[in-house]
Amino acid sequence: MDRLKLVHCADLHLDSPFIGLEGEDSALQDRLYKATFDSFSRIVDVCLREKADALMVGGDVYDRETRSLRAQLRFRDELARLSQAHIPVFVIHGNHDPLSGWSHRLTWPEGVHVFGPKVEAVPLIREGREVARVWGVSYGQPEVRESPAPEFAAALADDSGDGWRIGLLHANVGGDPGHESYAPCSVDELAAVGIDLWLLGHVHGARFWNHRGVHFLYPGTSQGRHRREKGPKGCYILTLGPNGVEAEFRATDSVRWEDIEISIDGITGEEELFQVLDDRLEKVRKAAGRPVIVDVRFVGRGPVAGLLRREGFLEEWQSESRSRWFGDGHDVWINRMDAVVGGERKLKKWLDEPTFVGELLRYVKERRDSGQWEAEAQEVLGTVMRFFQRRGEPEDWIDVEDWTDRAVERLLDELVAEGES
C-alpha cells in the first residue's frame, strides 16, 4: 500500500465558550474569544507545512446544534486554504453538530467532503490515482444510541480495493465513562469490520493504540475549554507506510489550562512561599509557550498553613499575582488559588491508636484502597453534581480525591489540635 501522511483532529467546538473561569478581564476575554478559531487555523498550518495528503475531521466541528455564522465562515475560510493547496478534507458531524441542526447554506471549497447520515465510502485520490478509501458517517440526530459497527461491516463487505481502508467515526469506543455513550461500540467490534485505521472523535483525551493489527486514534479536543481539559491539545500527524501506522502529536491550542500543586512541607515563611509560587508560574509559562490559565493548589503540612487558611489571604494574594502575571507582556492567568493544608500534626501515630480519630483515618484509608471510593462518593454527591451541571459545569468536574482531602482536613481541624502528638 502507498505511503500516506494524514492529519487528524476532532472536537473543535468552534465558537465554544470557556467554562469555570473566575475574574475574567477584557484582555483575557479577547484571547478566549479567538481560541478555538486560532487552534483550528494552526491545524491547517500543520497540514500545509507537512504537505499532508488529507485532513480528517472527526466530528463536533461546532459546539451547538444551531451553528453560528461566525463559526461556519471561519471553518470554510480555513478549508479554502487547504483547497488552494490541493489537500482534500473529510468531515463528519457528531452529537454537538448533527446534520439535523440549523446551518447557513454555504458552499464548501473544492476537495471538501462532508459525510451524510449513512455510512459511505469516498476515495482519497493522489496524482490521479486512488491510494486509500475513507468510510465515514455523520450524526443525523443529536443522539445515536446504536453501534455503527454493523453498518460499517455491511458497507465494506463488497470492497475489493487494495489501498488503505480508513474509518472516520464519532463514537464512544470501549465505553469511556467520562463521556456520553453515543454510537457505543467495542474495540473488538470495530477491529472485525475490515478497516485498517479508525480515526475517532467524541472522547476529549488523546489516545493512540493497536488492537489485533488495527490502529485506533482519538486525537482529543484541539483546544481545552475548561479546567478538566488541561495540558497540551491539538492534532495528530499520521504516517501510513510499510511498517504500519505512526502517530505524532502536534500542539495547536491557543490557550492552555494547567494545574499547579505546591507542597508547603518545609516552607517556613511568607517570602519563601511567594518565591516558590513565582518560580512555578515561570516554569509553567516557559514550558507552555502560549497563554496559560492555571489553578493553583497548596497542599501538605507546615508552619505557613495558618497563613494560607487565614480569611481573605488567598483572595488578596491571587488578585495581586494576577496583576503581576497577566498583561504587560505576561501571559499567565491565575484562575483559582486554594489550599488543602494543615498545621504540623503527627498523624501517623493516630492510625494505630484505638481512638475515634484513628478509627476515622483508618476507615478513609480502607475505603480509598478498596477502589470503590470514587463511585461511592459520586453517588453521595449526585445532587450536588446535578446542580452544577445545570449551571454548565463539565460532567466530570468533581475531583473526589480533592473533596475527600478537604473533608478529612475539616474533621481534623475540629478533632485534633495543631502540634498535638
UniProtKB/TrEMBL annotation:
Q: Which residues form the Calcineurin-like phosphoesterase domain?
A: 5-205
Mark the transmembrane ranges: none
What keywords does the record list, in alphabetical order? Hydrolase
A Pfam match:
Metallophos
What's a Gene Ontology MF term here? hydrolase activity
The protein in question is named Metallophosphoesterase
Please indicate which superkingdom the organism of origin belongs to. Answer: Bacteria
